[in-house]
Specification:
Elements: E1 7-12, H1 17-22, H2 27-36, E2 42-46, H3 47-50, H4 59-71, E3 75-80, E4 86-87, E5 90-91, H5 94-110, E6 115-119, H6 127-137, E7 140-145, H7 155-164, E8 169-174, H8 184-192, H9 197-205, H10 210-222, H11 230-233, H12 235-238, E9 255-262, H13 273-286, E10 290-296, H14 306-323, H15 328-335
Parallel strand pairs: 1-2, 1-10, 2-3, 3-6, 6-7, 7-8, 8-9, 9-10
Antiparallel strand pairs: 4-5
Length: 336
């Protein structure tokens, strides 16, 4: 079984961040390798990572990168952009926020992207004003929801996308929202970092139990999280979600793109495959078209080869998405 027409698997240049930090090659050169090595033909890039001059990088550099990608058989799908909310400690006014974002949109158009990506709700009051500019540049603004940002947690942000009712503002779902279990390598790292055994047991065996989240918050407030794993521990509150695909049924018509977030490739108990399978089944039922991008978050604690990790994940994802039969756990939840 193959992917439906209109679905495109892509890869994020964010996966190469450790290589960008090493600075042995430029960020554009590294992003290009995803196409040159045959990992993907469509790639996502992070504008702030690619060129100097952010938030207004040189457009000749962006167009040159577009041309190099095209020569290698690739193109940019989505560009990650951002709004710096503060200027030397002072909160930016809405007009200043728009002025900060506009050159990023124009750079994304110069690089040949089809869309740009912001965290859901961040555009706020300037969202309406951005629509004419998005139309001018022929770009889609994808509002990205991940982790704990479910429709129940952020109803106003999801409703705003629906109210605008324009193809130039769509939802991007990061499947970190749909984790049936935590990554094996992450749990191992917390264990080596000294997290209490009783909480580790709950994280391993009862991740989707709401009481587990209470226990995470309690340990954080107690001050007993060891300092060297404190940042890693915060993923439990921000980046790792516990929803099910059925929880997203009401917002699937708003969906224009998906991030296939993965952390490692240990698919014990189908903890990677099941969310992919559930999303694939849901999207096929709603007639989705768009990109599904492999994004590796585990680089925070792993030092594996990012090209190999991305390539292997895309292969796994292609199989699970092509299956398009809901996971056994989702079928049980739907029956209940």
């Amino acid at each position: 079984m193959s992917l439906p027409v209109g679905w495109q698997l892509t890869a994020s240049a964010f996966n190469l961040t450790p290589e960008v930090i090493r600075a042995e090659r430029t960020a554009p050169d590294l992003a290009l390798t995803l196409v040159e090595r045959g990992v993907a033909t469509g790639i996502e890039i992070e504008l702030g990572q690619m060129w100097r001059g952010f938030p207004d990088p040189p457009h000749p550099d962006a167009r040159a990168f577009r041309d190099r990608l095209a020569a290698a058989g690739g193109r940019v799908s989505i560009v990650g952009v951002s709004i710096d909310e503060f200027d030397r400690g002072r909160r930016r006014a809405d007009a200043e926020r728009r002025a900060f974002l506009e050159p990023q949109l124009r750079a994304a158009a110069a690089v040949g992207a089809t869309g740009v990506r912001l965290p859901i709700g961040q555009a706020g009051a300037i969202l309406d004003d951005l629509v004419p500019l998005l139309e001018e540049l022929d770009l889609v603004l994808y509002e990205e929801a991940q982790g704990h940002e479910t429709p129940t947690a952020r109803p106003a942000a999801y409703d705003r996308i629906a109210q605008l009712d324009t193809p130039h503002v769509r939802l991007l779902l990061d499947i970190s929202m749909l984790m049936p279990a935590l990554p094996v390598t992450y749990l191992d790292r917390l264990e080596r970092g000294g997290i209490r055994p009783d909480l580790l047991r709950r994280l391993r065996d009862e991740w989707r139990d709401p009481a587990t989240q209470d226990a995470v918050v309690d340990l954080l407030r107690s001050g007993q999280v060891p300092g060297h794993v404190h940042t890693l521990f915060m993923n439990l509150l921000v980046r790792f979600g516990r929803a099910r695909a059925s929880d997203l049924a009401s917002v699937l018509p708003l969906l224009g793109a998906v991030h296939l977030k993965f952390w490692d490739l240990d698919d014990a108990d189908d903890r990677i495959s099941d969310p992919l399978r559930d999303v694939g089944a849901a999207l096929a039922a709603t007639g989705f078209t768009g990109t599904l991008c492999s994004e590796w978050g585990g680089q925070e604690w792993l030092d594996d080869d990012p090209w190999e990790m991305t390539s292997r994940h895309l292969s796994l994802a292609a199989g699970a998405l092509s299956d398009r039969h809901p996971s056994a756990s989702l079928q049980r939840a739907s029956t209940q």
